Each structure stands twice: as C-alpha cells, then as structure tokens.
C-alpha cells in the first residue's frame, strides 16, 4: 500500500507542475488554487510514505515519477520536442525508479 501512495504522490507532483504551468506564474486564480491543493496532496502522500519507507528511497522515487510524468506531459500537451538522446536519459530515469523499487525490501 505504501508504494501505491508513493506512486500517487508522484502523479500528483506531475499534476501540480502541469497546473503551475497553466497558472501562468500564479496569475490565474483557479489554476493557482488547484496547483496549491495538488501540491499539498502530493507532499502529504509523500510524508505518509516516508513513515514506512526510508527517505533515501521515497524521495528519489517521488521526484523521479514527477520528472518522467512532467516530461510526458510536456511532450503531449505542450508539444515539447525531445532529442533521441534525451529520450534515452528518460529511459534511464524509468530504469532507476524501477530498479530502486525492485531492490528494496519493502
């Protein structure tokens, strides 16, 4: 269950980063409020996960999920162009996240 909470926390990190982009520097009230709410959810879920998982595991996985999610959102929603080499490094991020999960005892 703790890994599911951590995964959802990472998804909410992607959501708040996306909403922050839509807030245009916190100048659009609705998107600004949504950013803050989803940011709080993400951090609260991370805090819950760190009750059971070491910080050295939970934090890198959380940020990794958020990073990969934000990259995908950038490509899909904002038409960001990534080079093949950049995609290779994205793959390494995913491998790292999966590797951390697979090598922990919990």
TrEMBL record:
Transmembrane segments: 29-47, 59-78, 84-103
Main location: membrane
InterPro entries noted in UniProt: EmrE-like, Small_drug/metabolite_transptr, Small_multidrug_res
Pfam families according to UniProt: Multi_Drug_Res
Protein's UniProt keywords contain Membrane: yes
GO molecular function terms listed in the Swiss-Prot or TrEMBL record: transmembrane transporter activity
Top-level division of the source organism's lineage: Bacteria
GO-annotated cellular components: plasma membrane
Keywords: Cell membrane, Membrane, Transmembrane, Transmembrane helix, Transport
Subcellular location: Cell membrane
Family label: Belongs to the drug/metabolite transporter (DMT) superfamily. Small multidrug resistance (SMR) (TC 2.A.7.1) family.
PANTHER family documented for this protein: GUANIDINIUM EXPORTER, SMR FAMILY PROTON-DEPENDENT DRUG EFFLUX TRANSPORTER SUGE
Entry protein name: Uncharacterized protein
Organism: Secundilactobacillus malefermentans
Classification lineage: Bacteria, Bacillati, Bacillota, Bacilli, Lactobacillales
């Amino acid at each position: 269950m703790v890994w599911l909470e951590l995964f959802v926390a990472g998804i909410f990190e992607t959501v708040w980063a996306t909403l922050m982009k839509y807030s245009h520097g916190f100048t659009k009230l609705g998107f600004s409020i949504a950013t803050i709410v989803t940011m709080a959810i993400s951090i609260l879920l991370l805090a819950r996960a760190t009750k059971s998982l070491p910080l050295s595991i939970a934090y890198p996985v959380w940020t990794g999920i958020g990073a990969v999610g934000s990259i995908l959102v950038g490509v899909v929603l904002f038409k960001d162009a990534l080079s093949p080499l950049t995609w290779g490094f994205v793959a390494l991020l995913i491998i790292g996240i999966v590797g951390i999960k697979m090598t922990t005892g919990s």
